[in-house]
Amino acid sequence: MSRTLLTYAEIRHHQLRQVSFEAVSAAAHIVQDQDQIVTCLFYGSAEDPAEVERYAKELFAHGTKRLYTIAHTDLETYHAEAYFQAFHHVVTTVQPHVILLGHTALGRDLGPRLASAFQAGQLSDVTDIQQQGEHIICTRPLYAGKAVEKRTIQGSPTRPAIITIRPNNIPLQPVQDTTPSRDVVALPYTPPTLRSIVREVVRKTSGKLDLSEAKIIVSGGRGVKSAEGFQPLEELASVLQGAVGASRGACDAGYCDYGLQIGQTGKVVTPEIYIACGISGAIQHLAGMSSSRVIIAINKDPEAPIFKIADYGIVGDLFEVVPLLTAAFRDLLQKQQA
Amino acid sequence: MDIWVLLKQTFDTEEKITLVNGNIDDTGVKYIVNPYDEYAVEEAIRIVERQGGKVTVLSIGPEKTGEALRTALAMGADEAVLITDDRIPQDEWAIVHVLTAYLTGHKPDLILGGNFSVDHGAGQVAIRLAHQLDIPHVGSITKLDITADGKAVVQRDAEGDIEIIETAIPALFTAQQGLNEPRYPTLPGIMKAKKKPFRQLTLDDIPSFSWDDFAARTSRLELSLPPARQAGILLKGDMHEQALDLVRRLHEDAKVI
């Protein structure tokens, strides 16, 4: 029996998100025999055809065999009902056994509605995926990573298994050099009667990486002392092309937006490098960042719990250390470029 | 306004997790109202304080969950319903099947819940319920206004961007941090809560509940703890040397830059 594995390709700031390629790789992880990996992509009708062409190329290179597209003004930005309508149509057309989306703002919102519509199961925020016989086995964190569970799910063409994957966790399959068969299928869209309208999208993040996808995170805690105190962290992050995060302490103190909060409340992140500046390391914060590959702690207090889990620790004043680090990284990166 | 709030009781976020015989040990663990659900309770109470109505908190969970519901009543919710039944599996489809059956026949104007629970963290139940009840939803909101013509205008946090969305009512919303600052229960509030209606039910008490198609769609195979992280190297020297040393180690030893 051959199955269709459907992934969703998400566009953000005129790029396909990394997690969309990870979704294709996750499908490749469980692919068997004659299974086919296909992807769907939605965009506004004003989208530049050259950009869509580029998206298609990138997806084919990562392992997608066929791309389904839906273009409509309703789909220009995320709209829960419009995107549901489009996705529902793809699912009934393609009849996939499995649907893979990123566990992003979009995937979190769309996945459960789709699952409900198809009376299907869903596993959310998955960090690993395997096929064992008839079953798909997914690993996912509990308590923001303080524990880990493996759950099993089965899908069928009428009741697909829905899986949202956590960014930065599924390793990418090597990019293929094959001449892609340009198999792009445009599907129609029937506008539903919308019960809600998106009046406005206030872009506060243009160009900035989302924390969940950042490879390097520079994070500040109470030790940052004020909103202005984040400035040296911003500079370090910018040199490293990373993102700035924060502890609950810093957010509660009003130094920064709750959108930056990392922890069991807030975001869970798994970057390559996590630099904790002036963060003591409360359990609920550690839950949100302990799976980072390399953890660096900078804190005045040598007894701070963060040092117990950090790979490298510097006992010192972050306002002295962080600018020195920024300079040292800048030197290294310039040498590498030269 | 008839407002329903979906509430879950969770471990305090400062709790460590330990396993006994492959299960999570809750000996001596402090329980709280799931922090995101607390924002939902607070928001519901504020709406009723402004324009009248009733707030009912609804939960599925073991008997102990009653404590969390009492907390919500002490904050100012009017009624509580707890569905306790060992036959309900830990699976979002099944849980929503029960909630849908229970809410059939009720006509909520608003349903509020948390963005996700800090234990299982899937964030599925509320949005699935909106679909089953055929009402619109907006997830992860940081502001909620009810307009004079009976619509809701909300701000949704989409990974840092803010979407301003207007939606018809009835609707379901899930709360994100920043929506409000939840109040603490006062002593008079706690006293009053003891007299407020509190219903505890099993599946047998829900007339619309059907065993057809109730089966869990997912099941747990294994539960484990992540490998513990070890303390690494504390760097030495003056700050300038330490900074250079760190960058060198990241480049040469860890090879992450």
TrEMBL record, chain A:
The keyword Flavoprotein applies. Pfam families: ETF, ETF_alpha. GO terms for molecular function: electron transfer activity; flavin adenine dinucleotide binding. The keyword Transferase does not apply. It comes from the Bacteria. InterPro entries: DHS-like_NAD/FAD-binding_dom (IPR029035), ETF_a/b_N (IPR014730), ETF_a/FixB (IPR001308), ETF_alpha_N (IPR033947), ETF_asu_C (IPR014731), ETF_asu_C_CS (IPR018206), Rossmann-like_a/b/a_fold (IPR014729). Residues 5-201 form the Electron transfer flavoprotein alpha/beta-subunit N-terminal domain. Binds 1 FAD per dimer. Its cofactor is FAD. FAD binds at residues 222, 247-248, 261-265, 278-285, 299. GO terms for biological process: fatty acid beta-oxidation using acyl-CoA dehydrogenase. Transmembrane segments: none annotated. Keywords: Electron transport, FAD, Flavoprotein, Transport. Belongs to the ETF alpha-subunit/FixB family. This is Electron transfer flavoprotein subunit alpha. It comes from Paenibacillus selenitireducens. The lineage of its organism: Bacteria, Bacillati, Bacillota, Bacilli, Bacillales.
Automatic annotation (TrEMBL), chain B:
The keyword Transcription regulation does not apply. Pfam families: ETF. SUPFAM superfamilies: Adenine nucleotide alpha hydrolases-like. InterPro entries: ETF_a/b_N, ETF_b, ETF_beta_N, Rossmann-like_a/b/a_fold. Residues 21-210 form the Electron transfer flavoprotein alpha/beta-subunit N-terminal domain. One of its GO terms (cellular component) is cytosol. Keywords: Electron transport, Transport. It comes from the Bacteria. Heterodimer of an alpha and a beta subunit. The keyword Transport applies. Belongs to the ETF beta-subunit/FixA family. This is Electron transfer flavoprotein subunit beta. One of its GO terms (molecular function) is electron transfer activity.
